[in-house]
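Quick log. Single chain, no ligands specified.
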Amino acid sequence: MTLSFETRMRAALTGGALGDAMGAPVEGRGPESILASFSDWNFTAFIPPQGWDGVSHYWKGNGRITDDTLMIEAFLNAYIKSGTHLDAYGYAEHILPEVTRSIVWVPEYQKDMAIWERLWGPEKYPLLRLQYANAEPRSAGAGNMVNCGVAMWIMPAGAMNAGDPDAAYQEAVLISQAHNESFAVEAAAVLAAAHAEAFGGGNIADVIAAALRLAKDGTRRACEAAVNAADPADDLPTFIRKVRNAVAPFDQRTEHTSDDKPFTATEKSIATDIGRPSRTMSIEEVPVALAALKYGDGDFLKTLRAGVCYGRDCDSIAGMACGLYGALFGNDTFPETLTRELKEANRRDFNQLADTFSATVRNVFTRDQQRHDARNKAMGA
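-> predicted structure:
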């Protein structure tokens, strides 16, 4: 069955939010710890809060989305209000105000507030660079901690360029330069390309092939290693062990972390390269998300479980993998209990936002087509 763009968009947004919300309460834990607690969890209900996480007394869990989905929503609204493709200057003009000025319901705080107040330090960096330091947008991301903070919300760039992974890759690069640099930009571009392929009607193999074709440097090698390590026939602990071993050589944090003990600020500041630019390193999340998508082999719950139980930054990993899954397969394979609880827990109509964005994409596509027609005329076609 052929899915419409609108159907894929609804499912990509919902799927990403489901992964984000399911992984949130166990983010930062290792796979052994998660599997020990949730080996019998059927994943058709959200994982409950696991204790105070230092962010809000309301805690993560019970279907509450995190900054990953909040930023995707901000990006979607930036596209809707601008009505056009975006770049680094578009980030400064349209995305940053959505993050710093627009007031939205933040479930973890159970109140209306600006997304910026919820973000981690590196994700606040663009405000410093663009608003206070008056940096040129195309270099504003330089100096930030290189992490997954752009890749986690880049899905809309793939949707805006549905069916054209190369264009999605390039647009994501231009946008991401205002936020970060080096392999953070590369990871975002690769994931945007993967989404563009998924929105274009490709299958899992096509999505992975598009990502690998466009990926550069350490990101390409990390994605290749992770995907090659993923075998749908393996049990879940074996999948996790093999994929982590495959991606660890490309992860700057490997020598400074254990599964349940992140690096400290002191460790990061003394003679390490954690968070610094590199052509040989990669963020962990995108390679593992592609591996989880392959491992799930078209089964939503298997894909979700793989992303969540991998641990570490598992809300982002599951969000990326399940967002791609949604764009590929639509909403019909999501458990109805999860989609209902997601809407209730977050006081959101994800479908309405997806539909408004879809209309914007169709308008932009019409203008893209007019430019393409002008090129045809210029070339005598």
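The first strand starts at residue 103 and ends at 106.
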